[in-house]
Structures are given as C-alpha cells and as structure tokens.
Amino acid sequence: SVSTKPVSVAPKIITDIKAMTNANHQLILFGFYSTIDYSLYEGLFCYAFDQSGNQVIKHLENINSDVKANFMSKKEADKGDVSLSGFTLEHLVPLSTGGFYALSEKTHQVTEKEGEHFTYGDMLIISMDQNGNMKWGKGVKKNQQSMNDDAKWSSFNYFVYNDTLHLFYNKVIIDPGLA
Questions:
Q1: Which of 44, 76, 134, 149 counts the most CB atoms within 10 A of its CB?
Q2: SS3 93
Q3: What is the pLDDT of residues 128-167, one digit of tens each?
C-alpha cells in the first residue's frame, strides 16, 4: 500500500528533506528551508506522524547565529539575512531518546579539461530532541579533494554508541611524490 502526507513550510521553500522512524515509532520528516534559493539553509523543520498517520509534531525554526558561526565570522553570523550554502542533508541518525542527529555535508563537483574534480567539505551536525526542537548545532571542518576517482574515498561515515555520534573521514594528505 501507499500512504501520502503532503507537507509544506510555505511561504518558505523546502531545500532538503529526509525521513526516518524514531525510537517512539514515529515517522520523522526533517529538512531545511529557505526563502531565497533552493541551495540555501536558513532554517530547519521537523514533522512527526504517529503510527496512525496523525501529525503529532510540526516545528520550524531559523538556524541561529551560534550554529552559523561555525562556518563564518560571528559578526557575519549575527546578521539576520545570512544563510548557509552548499550543504546536502546526508543522514538522519535515530537516538534511543526519540531524538536524532541530522548530518549534512558540503559537496561540490566540477568537470574541467583535466577531468572531474570532487570536493567534500565541512559538515553540519544538528542534534534534535524527541519534540522536534534543535538542541544544538556544530560544524566539523574538513576539506577532502580528489580528481578523476569518483570521490571513492571522500565523504564520511559514522556510528552511534550510547547516543554518542562518532564520525570518521579520510584525512587527505597531499603527497607530491604521487603526482
């Protein structure tokens, strides 16, 4: 069978969205929104539906300046009209509390004369509570670049143990002897 649940953050536009089930057996829809462009993160939203399909949570909030300051100066982050750009929502990771982590990463791919250039950059980690509220947001600085390898060893992986998120990524060390 198929069930449909229309969601809207109007007049804002959804720029990224993922779904999961949490420890409370609710369907969670989480994502980011913008009022300007499909590539920007201005705020986040969280919907939750119970097992009968009833909406039990609808929460929207702007990304606060403390989170933005992970990726820009505090002075710039304090401006009201500043957004985060270049991120893609990769994973929602459920926690035993009913909350979850949302993991986003900056990615960029360019085809040049020499071939395909891949960049996997900083990460945005958002911790959400069981009521759909943001607890905190953190930035992880990284810069992985590769050429003509389909970015096979780029990006990240993770696991959760005792509700603690553990992140792993390949630290690229440029060896001029291999060029």
A1: 44
A2: strand
A3: 999 999 999 999 998 877 777 766 667 788 999 999 999 9
- How far apart (Å, rounded) are the C-alpha atoms in residues 152 and 23? 32
CA distance 145 to 33: 28
Interatomic CA distance for residues 173 and 28, integer angstroms? 38
Tokens of 6: 């229309």
User: How many whole angstroms separate alpha carbon 179 and alpha carbon 170?
Assistant: 19
DSSP three-state, residue 124: strand
Q: Is the pLDDT of residue 80 over 80?
A: no
The whole-model pTM stands at 0.88
Per the CB < 8 A criterion, the answer to whether 161 and 154 are in contact is no
Q: Which of 95, 6, 126 is nearest to 58 (CA)?
A: 6
- Quick one: pLDDT at residue 107? 81
Lookup result for tokens 């990240």: 156
Q: Could you give the CA distance from residue 60 to residue 46 in angstroms, rounded to a whole number?
A: 7
Output the pLDDT for position 37.
Answer: 86
The answer to whether the beta carbons of residues 139 and 127 sit under 8 Å apart is: no
Torsional sign, CA 69, 75, 78, 79: negative
Cα gap 29→57, rounded to integer Å: 10
Q: Cβ distance 74 to 67 under 8 Å? A: no
